[in-house]
Amino acid sequence: MSAPMGPNGERPRPAPAAQSGLAAQAGPGGPGGPGPLPEVPEALLSGYLDAALATLRAADQGELPGPLRQYQTWTPKRLRHQRVLSLVRRTLDLDQSFRKAVDERVLQEEEALARLVRAGRHAEALASGETPEAVARVGLALGAEGEAAVRSALAGAENELDAARERAEAEAASARAARDELRAVKDELRRVERERRTLADRVEGLERELAQSAAAVRAARDDAAAEQRRLSGRVAELQARLGESQRNYRALRRSSGQVDPAVAEAVGALERDLETLRRVAGLAEEGGKGRGSASAGPAGSGSEPGSGPARRPERRSPLAVPGGRGADDPETLAAWMATDGVLVLVDGYNVTKHPQGFADRGLEDQRTLLLDRCRRLARRFGAEVTVVFDGGTVGPIPTRLPLGPVEVVFTDAGRTADDEIVVRTNAAPPDRPVVVVTSDNELRSRVSALGATVTRSPALLGLAAAR
C-alpha cells in the first residue's frame, strides 16, 4: 500500500515498516498483531474510520487486505455503507499492516495535533479549537500512547454533548415561549380584526342613519317651506276678506248710521282669526293690521263715539283665582263656572287620557263618561260647556252633536282640537270670560296669550267626581 498524498499532491516515501509487510496479512493473534480498537462512541470513531476508507481508496490493490480489495473502486458514499464499515473495522482489529498504514495517514494529516497529544497537552488540544473527533482520531492512531487523548476526547465530547443538550433545551424552551407568544399575538390579531369589522359595520350603519336623517331634514325643510307658502297664501286671502268686510262695514255705517251686531261680531272674529294665523305661521304684523285695527273696527264699536254704549275691552282678561286656592284646584274651577256668561272649552281627549281620567277605556266609552260629567256640571253651575274632540280618528261623526246644555265638537280632518279651541277662544267677545280645561302646555300657552283662563284636566275630573 502506498502512503497518503502529501500537501503538494506528491506521494511521500513510505516508512520502512510500511514497505516491509503491508502486502502480507498478519493472522489473528499472530506475533505483533494489533489489539482491537477501543470501545468509543461511534461519533468519535467516525473520524478514524474515514481515514481508513481514504487509505483503502489510495492504496495499491495488491497491498490491500483480501476482504477489502473489492471495495477499492467504490465511491466514498457507497463505502459509508454499514456492512463496509463493519468489515473495515474488523480488518483494523486483525491486520497490523493496514492498521499501521491508517495510523501513519492520520498522524501525517494531523501533525500539529499529534505533537500536542504526544506531549500530553490534551486539554490544550481541545481548547485550541480542535474537535473531540479529531483528538480521538489522533489518539487512536497513537495506540497506547494516545489512550489518554482518547479519554480526554471522550470527556470533551461528553461535555460538548451536555452543552449541546443544554443549548437544545434552552432553544426548545425559547421555541415554546416564542410559539406561545405567537399564538397570543394571533389571538390578539383575530380579536382586533373582529373589533375592526364590528366598528366598520357600526360606521356603515351610522353613515346610513346619517344619510337617512339628512334626507328627512331636507324633506322636513321642504314641507315647512310648502306649509309657509300655504299659510302665506291663507293670510293673503284672509287679509283680502278682511279688507272687503271693512269696506262693507264702512259702507253700512255711511248708509244707515247703525251696524248689525252680527256683522260687527263676524268682522271681529275674522280679525282675530287672522291675528292667530299670523302668530302660528310666524309672520310679523303688516301695515298696522291686527288687533289694533280690529278694535277700531266693528268689534270695538256699537255706534259712534259718545252716542251709544261704552266700548268693549280690546283684550280679554283672565278670571281671578279665589284667595287661598290654586288655578288647578277643583273648587277654583267651580267658582269660575259659576261666573255669568262664562264659556268653558274642554280639550276632550286630553282630559279622558289623563292618568286620573279613563285612559283604560275605549274611545267611545271615554267620550261617553266625559260628556256625562260635563252635562251634570253645566246644569249644576249654569255654564255653557263645549267639549272638543279630534275628529280624524272617530269615523263619520257629525261636526256638532247637541247634548243638553253641552255642545260637542268633532274637528274636521286636518284640523286638531287644539286649533279649534284657539279659534273659539279668539272668536268669543273680549268681554266674555273663557275658561279652557287642558293639561297640554302648548295649548295653554296659546289660549293664555288670548286672555283665556286656564286650568288643568284634574280640576274638572276632581270637580265632577265630588258630590
Class by alpha and beta content: mainly alpha
**Shape category:** rod-shaped
Span between termini = 144 Å
What is the makeup of the main sheet? Answer: 6 strands, mixed
Give the beta-strand count.
6
In spatial order, strands of the major sheet run 3-4-2-1-5-6
Number of helices, where a helix is a run of at least 4 consecutive DSSP H or I residues? 17
Helix/strand order? HHHHHHHHHHHHEHHEEEHEHEH
Radius of gyration: 62 Å
Indicate the proportion of strand residues. Answer: 5-15%
Report low-confidence residues grouped into runs of 5 or more: 1-32, 256-262, 285-308
Average pLDDT, rounded to a whole number, is 77
Helix percent band: 55-70%
Topology of this structure?
Elements lengths: L15 H6 L20 H17 L17 H4 L2 H13 L1 H14 L1 H8 L3 H6 L4 H10 L5 H110 L4 H21 L9 H6 L33 H8 L5 E5 H5 L10 H19 L2 E6 L10 E4 L2 E5 L6 H11 L6 E4 L3 H8 L4 E3 L1 H9 L2
Parallel strand pairs: 1-2, 1-5, 2-4, 5-6
Antiparallel strand pairs: 3-4
Helix pairs in contact: 2-5, 2-8, 5-8, 8-9, 9-10, 10-15, 12-17, 14-17
List keywords for this structure.
single chain; 6-stranded mixed beta sheet; 467 residues; rod-shaped; 6% strand; 17 helices; disordered N terminus; mainly alpha; 6 strands
Outline the structure in words.
A six-stranded mixed beta sheet has the order 3-4-2-1-5-6, sandwiched between helices. With 467 residues, it is mainly alpha-helical. Residues 1-32, 256-262 and 285-308 have low confidence and may be disordered. The protein has helices at 16-21, 42-58, 76-79, 82-94, 96-109, 111-118, 122-127, 132-141, 147-256, 261-281, 291-296, 330-337, 348-352, 363-381, 417-427, 441-448, 457-465; strands spanning 343-347, 384-389, 400-403, 406-410, 434-437, 453-455. Helix content is 59%, strand content 6%. Helix 2 packs across helix 8.
